[in-house]
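thought: user wants a sequence for this fold. calling inverse folding tool.
action: design(structure=
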């Protein structure tokens, strides 16, 4: 098993309206451009925790499948996975790994990323908790 050593944690400020109830169709936006700064050349990870309405789990997972399939085909994406909490089936976590910040930026620029937020708006029970990490190195244990 590999343990990832995280050098820099950057929390994205995601307003509730960005993904839940956004009537303008805008995407999730970073509140401050300095928050997108990452250490050059480092691998990037994104961890997004979401709570889904109980009656919308199937709708959410179907929408997520397209996002997962397309994201995993991106040249800069090394892994894009969705996990469901086995104890609370309404809790989900996306775990994304990218080669570098440029790969993250390319992912954020895709049409399917832009469409995903508005597509799942009505499925979410609250604001997502999204964190972006720069990873210095991995250490085998």
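)
observation: tool returned 141 residues.
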């Amino acid at each position: 098993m590999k343990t990832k050593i995280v050098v820099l944690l950057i929390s994205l400020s995601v307003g509730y309206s960005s993904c839940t109830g956004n009537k303008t169709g805008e995407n999730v936006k970073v509140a401050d451009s300095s928050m997108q700064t990452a250490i050059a050349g480092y691998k990037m990870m994104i961890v997004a925790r979401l709570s889904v309405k109980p009656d919308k789990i199937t709708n959410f997972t179907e929408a997520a499948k397209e996002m997962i399939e397309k994201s995993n085909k991106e040249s800069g994406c090394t892994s894009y996975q969705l996990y469901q909490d086995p104890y609370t089936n309404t809790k989900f976590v996306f775990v994304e790994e990218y080669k570098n910040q440029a790969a993250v930026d390319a992912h954020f620029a895709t049409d399917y990323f832009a469409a995903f937020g508005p597509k799942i708006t009505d499925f979410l029970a609250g604001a997502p908790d999204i964190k972006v990490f720069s990873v210095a190195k991995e250490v085998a244990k």
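thought: summarizing for user.
answer: Here is the designed sequence. The chain has one domain: 2-28+40-140.
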